[in-house]
Design brief:
Elements lengths: L22 H15 L28 E6 L5 E3 L2 E3 L4 H11 L5 E6 L5 H13 L5 E3 L2 H10 L1
Helix pairs in contact: 2-3
Length: 149
């Protein structure tokens, strides 16, 4: 007749605690993983010929407070690398300007060959959006930024 249980007993019981000795290691590994795999969106440069200027001024604003509006030679407008029609500019810029607590600076980056009436319409759209601070990017400004890098 076999002996039930065999006469052996366990010396240790299974622990109900979750082992947390490697939690910090896992947290740092996850942090490093997300830092390495995160991609920050960068504005794409548009193929435009910059307008010339005799003098320029550096904008002392954080990059997050500058909204670049690109105007190409054919009059097409890009905001945050997305194309928009002229009539949509006011409805796109107004919420962004309000969300920034009126700290947003609009940088118009247009081609030298863009007709003046397109820039005038763009300025009217920005006025309708309630924008107060508008700057025009020039070739001299671009040259100064390249020299700083």
């Amino acid at each position: 007749m076999p002996i039930k249980g065999g006469g052996f007993s366990r010396k240790s019981q299974a622990s109900s605690d979750v082992p947390d000795s490697s939690m910090a290691d896992i947290a740092f590994l996850l942090l490093i993983f997300f830092m390495v795999t995160t991609v920050f969106q960068k504005d794409r440069d548009r193929p435009i010929i910059w307008p010339e200027a005799e003098a320029t001024q550096k904008i002392d604003e954080k990059l997050k407070n500058i909204l670049n509006i690109w105007v190409q030679r054919d009059g097409s407008i890009f905001i945050n690398d997305r194309p928009y029609a002229m009539g949509e500019v006011s409805s796109v810029v107004a919420p962004l300007y309000a969300a920034s607590d009126r700290a947003l600076v609009i940088s118009i980056r247009s081609d030298r060959e863009v007709q003046y009436n397109v820039i005038d319409l763009l300025q009217k759209q920005l006025v309708a959006a309630g924008v107060v601070r508008v700057v025009f990017a020039t070739e001299l400004e671009q040259r100064m930024q390249r020299e700083r890098r």
